[in-house]
Amino acid sequence: MVRAYRTRNNHITLCRTNGGRLYYYGEFTGRPSTGLAMRAEETTDGYVARNGPYRYTIDGDKVIVTQNGRTIGQESLSPEPSPS
């Protein structure tokens, strides 16, 4: 695990595989069936992951969701402790 966050409605986890690939996993709180994993990359200000027309950008203490370049959501992030 690289980082973990929560928002008002979501849990977001960033994990790196043994091979060095970074993944963004997001799910609605209490609804694990809504979970979605996607490749991510580190940026100078945080992280970004893409899923088709959707882009999930972690920038400091917020996550911004865009669809086809248009912002459709933004939420404040609270860091979660590592489970280890």
Structure in a nutshell:
This protein is mainly β and 84 residues long.
Strand order of the largest sheet: 8-7-6-5-4-3-2-1-9
- Distance, first to last CA: 9 Å
- Helix count? 0
**How many strand segments?**
9
Q: Beta-sheet strand percentage?
A: over 45%
Q: Which residue ranges are poorly predicted, with pLDDT under 50 across at least 5 consecutive positions?
A: none
Number of domains: 1
Order of helices and strands: EEEEEEEEE
Summarize the biggest pleated sheet: 9 strands, antiparallel
Question: What this model shows, in words?
Answer:
- The model has no long low-confidence stretch (mean pLDDT 94).
- 12% of the residues are buried.
- This protein starts with a strand and ends in a 5-residue tail after the last strand.
- By secondary structure, the protein is mainly beta.
- The radius of gyration is 12 Å and the shape is globular.
- The chain contains no helices and nine strands.
- The chain is 0% helix and 62% strand.
- It has a nine-stranded antiparallel beta sheet, with no helix packed on it.
Label this structure with key terms.
single chain; 84 residues; mainly beta; nine-stranded antiparallel β-sheet; 9 strands; 0% helix
Topology at a glance:
Blueprint: E1 3-6, E2 10-16, E3 22-28, E4 36-42, E5 46-51, E6 54-59, E7 62-67, E8 70-76, E9 78-79
Antiparallel strand pairs: 1-2, 1-9, 2-3, 3-4, 4-5, 5-6, 6-7, 7-8
